[in-house]
Each structure stands twice: as structure tokens, then as C-alpha cells.
What does this fold into?
Amino acid sequence: MTLSFRYLLLIAMTLVSLIPICILALWTSHNVLDNEYQTVHDKHLLLAKNLSQALDRYSVDALSIFTHATDSVTRQHISANFVTLLQDIDVESIGEYDAQGQLVNVLFGPEKLQPQSLTHGKNVFDLSALSMATFTDVHKMGVQKPTLYMIRKDSQQRIWLAVMNPEFITLLQSAVKFGKEGHAAIVDRQGNVLAHPNKQWQTSSKSLAQVSIVQQMMAGNTGVMEFYSPAVKQDMIAAYTVVPATGWGVMIPQPLEELFARAQSEVDSIMLIAFLSFCACLLLSWWVTGLITRPIAVLTAQVCDLTQQQTQLGQYPKQKFETKEFVTLFERFHQMSMQVLKSQKDLAQRVKDKTLDLAKAQAEALYLANHDQVTGLANRMSIRNTIEQRIDEKQPFSLLFIDLDGFKNINDTYGHGVGDSLLRNIGQQVSVNIEYNDIFARYGGDEFVLLLQNNLQSSHVNHKANRVLELIKQPYKIGQHTLQVSACIGVARYDGASAANVDRLIHEADVAMYQAKNAGKDQVVLAG
It folds into this structure.
């Protein structure tokens, strides 16, 4: 069988294009499901950890407010400011109990929410370890509806019990929704539902302790696993983790069939693209083989014409067999090679430019990650990292926790734009008047942190703190307004030798700051 050169070349080019297309399509299809699993592992675990961090922050703040509010009780009364804070963290009622767990007084909220006794009846509490404020597990017995509490015992052996409405927890859970049935679920340390898309389960605080993934969370583990969900009655894959402050479990589940459906859709798309690519390669090969074989055909025709003339062919110079098509082809190849070189240079330059742009973007991203966008000062993450580094290096320092007085009224009166301008002015005023090694950072809202290097003497620290108060109290011209605020400062010190951590030091300074506020504001209080 004799085939023309064009058809042989077409078959060869078709095979050359078909084999890698098939291999790439099969390999990509094989990895689609693995990619889906990896996506779930990365994104869902990130969601779970972010939700856990939000719950951890809420828990720490709630317990701190509960502790300070109950410590401030005088004459069976809680101040209006603390009542507002307690309501903000979803506290419905606070009761005072004696050391034997008998109800003494209800400070605010409906009295019916408070049990008459913490040790008798169906709704009993473990009073053995109450040195610090803590969240209880969900109580189901002896209550009208499952209830979450905060409980603590103070230095006077009084027991305080706060009835919680988990509205914020439910809000966080309901904010996570993706796909058709992807959601978030939160359980307590015993596997009882705190927040779940199944409202009946949430209302009854259904126990999920027998579900395998809940058992993993109850054991304090973090990861990704498959399990059978009785809520949707199908196999799920979920990322899960634990809230450090409370031991609550957080999981982000999604039905496996959604992963399979999305993977099948991608496989179908890959196969369609492979088929279209093959058709495009076939058409391109036919066109290319025509370009390659056409000059040979023309040359062959010329040779045939010479043969049909029955004339003796002499030895022709090499140029005699060169046709216009070959010359043009050679020229085109030459031009194409020049164009390829030019394109490579252009590509190399573009890669270089993109690399510089990427480096610039990375530098900007690093700056934004470590600096507050409003004031330009170091942000919460940056100052915490700095504190942790100095603790690790055993470098002594003093930590000033600063909270502005009257800033909320300015925000409410003049708007957030004026408030942000005031924060920037305060940041500039203080940062330009501190020593070189001192670090001034915005911790959040109207809270700032000043880190004093190697400053432990009370007199020196107190002098600097009062200097900061004077700087903050300076009047600021913002647009048409002249504004003035004051501040309270709590000071914690690290001697470079004792055991310490970032949270404890900030907490000590924060507590001292609140003591300064309670002492009449515009004050400096040293912790300890």
C-alpha cells in the first residue's frame, strides 16, 4: 500500500498530539477527586480554625467581663456599664449563691432563670473547682430548656452564676454556609449541640457524643475526617477543631456526594476539552502538513514536467532546484526563529517585571499584615509577636495597656471618619515622643499598647505612662472640630526570668487598666 507523504505526515502528527492529550486528560481526571479532598482539607480546616478563634475570643472576653462584673458588685448592685457589657455578651441573668450553693440574690434578669440550689434537685453543678470563671456544659435536667452557664467563686466564697443565651454562638454558626448542604456545627465538651442548622437539635441541645467526629473533638483533636451524619442521613467529610478556652468542638461538614458531583463535572469538562483539543490538533495538523508538503508537490510537478518533455536532464546547479516556495519557507523559518528569540526576551522581561511586582506585593502584604490600616502603627498580631519574641529571649520589659476615655462619644457624634483621624493623630503624637526602642501599637478599637524596653523601675515606668497620658490629652484639630480625650493605663512588667506568656501579661495590664478606670479614669495603675 502506497500513501502520499502528506497522509503519512498527518497520521504521525495526529498520533504525536493524541497520546499526550489522552495521558494528560486521564491523569487530570484521576487527580480531580484528590484535588477536591485537598481543597476540603485546606479550606474547611481554615474555616474551622477561624470559627474556633472567634469563639475563643468571645469566651475569653465573656469570662473576663463576668469576672470583673461580679467582683464589682456592691450592695447587691451591678453598675449600669457592666449590665450593658453583660447583655452584649448574651448574659440573661446573674445570681449570687452562698458557699453551700443556695440562692441569695438575683442581681439582674428574671429570677425564674436561676436555680434555687446548685447542689439539690435535678439541675446540680460541680462546685469542686471554681477558682476561675468557666463555662459549664449544657444543662438539660431541671430546666425549661437546655441552658449554658458561666460560673465562678470569688475570694469571699460567694458563687456567681450567669445564665447565657447563645445568640452570638448561633450567629457565628449560621454565617458559615456553602454548597448545597455545607454548614458549621458547634458542640460542648460532652457532645451536646450548641449551634446547628437543624434548629430542633439546637433547641433540644441534642447529644451527638456517639458520632465519631464529635468523639474526636471531645478528645481535643483537630483534623479532617469522613463520617455518617444523622442530621442529613448521608456520608460527610468535615474539618474539625476545638476552642482552646472552653473545649467546645467546631466542625465544618459537607456531603461527600457534593465532592463527587463537582469532581464528575470537572471530569466531564476535561474530557470535552480533550476532545476539542484533539479536533483542533487534527485540523491544525491537516493545515500544517499542507504547508509542509505543498512546496514538495510543486517541486515534484516541476520534475514531472521536465520528465514529460523527454529532454535529457543535465546537472543543474543547486540554485536551479530552489523554488520560490522553499526560499519563502526558509525565510519564514528564519523570521520565525527571530520572532521566537524576541518573544523569549520579551517573556523573560515580563517574568522579571512580574517577579518585581510580586516582590513588591509581598512586601506590601507583609506591611499590611503587621501594621494597623487606620493609624499605620504596629497592629495586634505584630505587637503580640514582638512580646512573645522578647519573652523567648528573656528580655525584661514593661507593657502599657492604654484605653481611651470618651472616644465612643466622639465616634457617635462626629462619625467614624473623624474618629479614625483622631486615632491617627494620637498615634503620631505618641509615637514621635517615645524613645527609640519603645514600640507603640494599636491593639484594637480605642486600645493601644506601649512596649518599654528594659524598663522595670516603677518610678521610671510611671513617669513614662503619665507622659503618655499628657500627650494623649493634647487637643487635636480634626477638620472644623477641636477634640480632646483622656485615657487609662494599666501596666504589667516582665523581669526576664519568671515564667510568662503573652496572654497573661496582656490580661494583667488589661485588668490594671480597668482598675484605673474604676479609680476615676485618667489614671495609671501598675499590675501586681
User: Anything to note?
Assistant: The chain has twelve helices and 19 strands.
